[in-house]
Amino acid sequence: IGDEVEVLIESMEDENGYLVLSYGKAEKAKGWMQLGDSINEGDMVEGRVVKQVKGGFIADVNGIEAFLPMSLSAFKNVSMDHILTRKYSFQVAKLNKARRNLILSRKEVVQKEREQLREKIWVDLQKGQKRSGMVKGITDFGAFIDLGGVDGLLHITDMSWTRINHPSEMLKVGDRVEVLILDFNKAESKVSLGLKQISENPWAHIYDKYPTGTITKGKVVNVMPYGVFVEIEKGIEGLLHSSEITWQKKMVNPQEMFKAGDEVEVQIINVDKDSKRISLSMKQLERNPWLDAGAKYEVGAKVKGKIRGFTDYGAFVELESGLEGMIHISDMSW
After folding, report:
1. What fold, for 206-285?
2. What pLDDT digit, counting tens, does each position of 194-211 carry?
3. Cα separation of 242 and 21, whole Å?
């Protein structure tokens, strides 16, 4: 009580004989008097969104009620609670001073802000720099990361030191991730990113950690007709070739003997750091039975065995030691 306020006279007398006044309309009129002569279409103004209406939003610009169409709001995926708590810059899209009609847009403002941010990112970008970004899209060959106005490509080969079949095994759209700037070209708007490079290369000291002859345990991660890939530690896999599974001369099928997830004990028989290849063996963990075959199975000795297979020219027999011999068809009967 006692405060002085400016009001607008709406009517000199209502049905009860009172003077009709409006504070709200006075504020709007004052706003138009302050801005009406100074603003034009394309100018920038500041204001707050006060409510959502059909087709858009109502914004308050210095007391002037303005309409912000949904299509020009740039409020995609932004909650209403967040929208109402901030002050925004708008561009005057349409202005009718006679009818006191003001239509706003944020599209141009947001676009300009993005361009400014993009330019700042290009200025600040350095090779070897760590940056936080959001996964924008995923393809078979990698993931596109939004660094805040500039998109970079995280190639599948730079995601992990371990072998992955598809980027979706590690990332999904919307994930926030820290990446390393491997290279960039502003003229071509290209940025190459790395994720695995943030952690130490597990192959860096491979010769010290796994010298030839080392016996270790690992987990089967993939089984192929020619052998088994074994992960001996995170980021390091070796190949257990089918020829290194057993001393037996017969062909073995790894897919019948192993499955993903199996734990196996193996010996390191070769390491190639440059090509990131490790050769593994299971049969080297046992003494080669053929070294003792001459002494154990003398010519003329009688032995027992189990028939393992037939061919047109004979039969294969497994002896007690796991060795295989062949009975030729010409030696089966007189």
Report:
1. OB fold (Dihydrolipoamide Acetyltransferase, E2P) (2.40.50)
2. 999 998 888 888 999 999
3. 95
